[in-house]
Write a structure and sequence with these properties.
The strands form 10 sheets. The chain has a 6-stranded mixed sheet. The chain is α+β, with helices and mostly antiparallel strands and 679 residues long. Helices cover 14% and strands 33% of the residues. Residues 29-41 have a biased composition (Pro residues).
Length: 679
């Protein structure tokens, strides 16, 4: 045995063989990455255009020819190629897309009801029904089984005395969709002052107009009249017995005013018809339902007429007029008419709105309007709302929005006065508020008004503000700190802390006194900048970012702009943007000229022939972000919708190397449309 082992050892030691033999091969060269797909090229069909003395050629204007069947077939083919190209380019981001989609879906607001709004004895609200596409409009008595009432579930409860549900369904929009070809879109909705009828207009997509209907809320049935087509405005009169409405012509110009007696078999009565092609008619009722105001306006004049709501057939009285187009709103309070307008003063244009008043009785020849507030360039009145006992004012101090109230009636016979002389009571708002929007506030006799407070670093807060004592309650707000929707009831107020709303007995969430607004400033920052434009005008720029994720000169950015129609740029918190902020993105908002919030001149300096100012303002803000290392170079994207889409597209055409991507929500970017816009 020993001899055998020695022999074997010698054999393998003399002729060693590796257990794994090396193969002889040449190392392969690394394969180059696949070439990126080529973007599709749409066919060119040159067409010539002329506008404002300029001529140009557009090879892609055929894309907007919706009635050309051949062009639309070519468009379908091209869009399929675009979709395949996008899928190929984005194929390596499928996991990221799925993750982002899951994140954003988890933050959807699942409020099944709007917070109920009290008007007289009723609480009105809209709520969703399981498995149905459209909501239902409902109401319930505020005094019935009050212990069940909550903002989150206003339909809860049962009337054991009558054996019926507490909730009354007023209008099911799913049934309205069946009436109008599977689509339900409501433009106007007004409950009569006696709470007996509901007048509303629904869009008829087959005929492209809004159709008026009136529903009897006591029986849940449609009234035989009034029913009208092409309705643009409605207003109740005679305590709900009469309905005034305005219809448009085939060019969608409001030009006729009718009065209909609800339940009557008589034909509706024509109160006004304006044949002038450039004159538009608009109506609204005062909050106390004593008058209906009729506004007629054109590019060269504005007039306001008054109709006695108790006798709508008694005629119209002219109460105010000016020689230019102006925004005008008239309210009535205890024998005085109040006019909120931006019309010229003594022939001189003004930059902001102001409030006038006049006794309701004088004849037109003796009527005199006096200013309520003295001019104050530091404190601008942006909006007003009346109740029987108080006047609510949304004011702006530089770029800071505030909400305050003063007691009514106002002193008379003393001329105009400064707001501080009336000892206004201010609602303690969070920082970085960018917009305050008044709610419907139908109840003229109530001192409580509803407002929505918006901020780039706080989910919208719907607030009930008691003007008489300064107490306020957050009746609805999404709580993103827990990544789910909860209805919050604020307990803090300027008058006292710890008070509960009578509607907050269910699902109440106590809010820490150090953060009663549930904002997100602990996690996200909001900074304001002043950016000089090409002509030296300073453009406000707002940026939002994560305190923990933002890195200097390394952050990608998204720049939002609109600059049209005198509208305030929407800077509200958006849940979907949280996914970008948490990945280090910077979200920026450029308040370019043409938009609102900074006076009439700011709007006019960015419209029509001055539209180039909006584009230059936007480009200067984009360069500011890159030059100051707020956003990394080559990582800036543009974002705009509607007229803002035109703005961003024009900026990219002017400076294509400044932007890497764009999010555009706009139906057309044709050169002829961009040349004709009056935004």
């Amino acid at each position: 045995m020993r001899h055998l082992l020695v022999t074997l050892r010698r054999r393998y030691c003399n002729h060693p063989k590796p257990l794994i033999q090396r193969a002889h091969y040449k190392p392969q060269k690394p394969q180059p990455p696949p070439a990126p797909p080529s973007p599709p090229k749409p066919p060119k069909k040159p067409a010539k255009f002329s506008l404002h003395g300029e001529s140009w050629e557009d090879p892609y204007s055929w894309m907007s020819q919706l009635n050309d069947k051949v062009a639309m077939r070519h468009m379908d083919v091209y869009m399929e190629q675009e979709e395949k190209y996008i899928e190929a380019v984005m194929s390596d981001t499928e996991r990221l897309q799925s993750k982002l989609q899951s994140e954003m879906a988890s933050r959807f607001s699942f409020d099944l009801s709007t917070p109920p709004l009290r008007w007289g004895p009723w609480l009105y609200y809209r709520r969703a029904e399981e498995g149905k596409q459209y909501p239902v409009l409902c109401r319930r008595l505020a005094s019935l089984n009050e212990e069940f009432i909550s903002h989150k579930s206003p339909s809860a409860g049962f009337d054991f005395t009558s054996g019926q549900r507490i909730e009354q369904k007023l209008l099911d929009y799913n049934q309205e969709a069946e009436r109008f070809g599977g689509y339900a879109y409501e433009e106007l909705s007004e409950v009569s002052p006696d709470h007996r009828y509901l007048a509303y207009t629904m869009y008829d997509k087959d005929n492209d107009y809004f159709k008026l209907s009136v529903r009897d809320l006591n029986f849940g049935t449609l009234c035989s009249k009034p029913q009208a087509d092409r309705v643009s405005n409605i207003a109740w009169a005679k305590n709900g017995q009469a309905l005034l409405y305005v219809v448009t012509n085939h060019d969608k110009r409001p030009y006729r005013l009718y009065c209909s007696m609800v339940g009557s078999d008589e034909d509706d009565i024509l109160l006004l018809e304006d044949p002038q092609e450039n004159v538009y008619v608009n109506i609204r009722h005062t909050k106390d339902f004593q008058f209906v105001t009729v506004n007629t306006f054109s590019t060269t004049s504005s007039k306001i007429f008054l109709i006695n709501a108790a006798d709508p057939l008694s005629g119209m009285t002219l109460v105010w007029e000016c020689e230019t187009r102006a925004h005008c709103m008239v309210e009535h309070h205890q024998g005085f008419l109040y006019l909120f307008t931006d019309a010229a003063k003594e022939g001189q244009p003004v930059d902001n709105h102001y409030l006038l008043r006049s006794p309701v009785d004088p004849s037109p020849s003796l009527r005199k309007w006096e200013s309520v507030f003295a001019d104050d360039d530091e404190l601008i009145v942006e909006d007003v709302d009346f109740s029987y006992s108080h006047l609510a004012l949304i004011v702006r101090e530089n770029r800071v929005f505030k909400l305050c109230s003063v007691s009514l009636p106002l002193p008379s016979g003393k001329g105009s006065f400064h707001l501080k002389e009336l000892y206004p009571q201010f609602l303690p708002l969070p920082s970085n508020v960018t917009q305050i929007s008044p709610g419907p506030n139908y109840d003229y006799l109530s001192s409580t008004m509803r407002f929505t407070i918006s901020s780039p670093v706080m989910p919208d807060a719907v607030v009930d503000y008691d003007l008489s004592n300064g107490k306020w309650n957050i009746v609805q707000q999404q709580n993103l700190l827990h990544e789910r929707t909860r209805v919050l009831y604020g307990s803090a107020s300027s008058g006292s802390r710890g008070e509960k709303s009578p509607l907050s007995r269910v699902d109440e969430v106590n809010i820490a006194n150090d953060n009663p607004w549930n904002d997100l400033v602990e996690y996200y920052g909001c900074d304001q900048y002043s950016v000089p434009s090409d002509d030296g005008v300073v453009v406000p720029l707002t940026i939002v970012y994560s305190h923990h994720r933002r890195k200097e000169d390394q952050s990608p950015g998204l720049l939002h702009g609109h600059g049209a129609y005198g509208e305030i740029l929407d800077k509200r918190w958006r849940n979907e943007l949280k996914s970008l902020l948490d990945r280090g993105w910077v979200i920026a908002y450029a308040d370019v000229r043409g938009g609102g919030g900074f006076g009439k001149k700011w709007h006019h300096d960015g419209q029509r022939s001055n539209k180039i100012n909006s584009i230059r303002d936007y480009i200067c803000c984009a360069k500011f972000l890159v030059d100051n290392k707020i956003v990394q170079e080559n990582k800036l994207s543009g974002w705009g919708y509607s007229a803002g889409g035109l703005l961003v597209a024009a900026a990219i055409n002017s400076c294509p190397d400044l932007f890497r991507a764009a999010v555009l929500k706009v139906w057309s970017l044709g050169s002829s449309k961009m040349g004709c816009t009056s935004a």
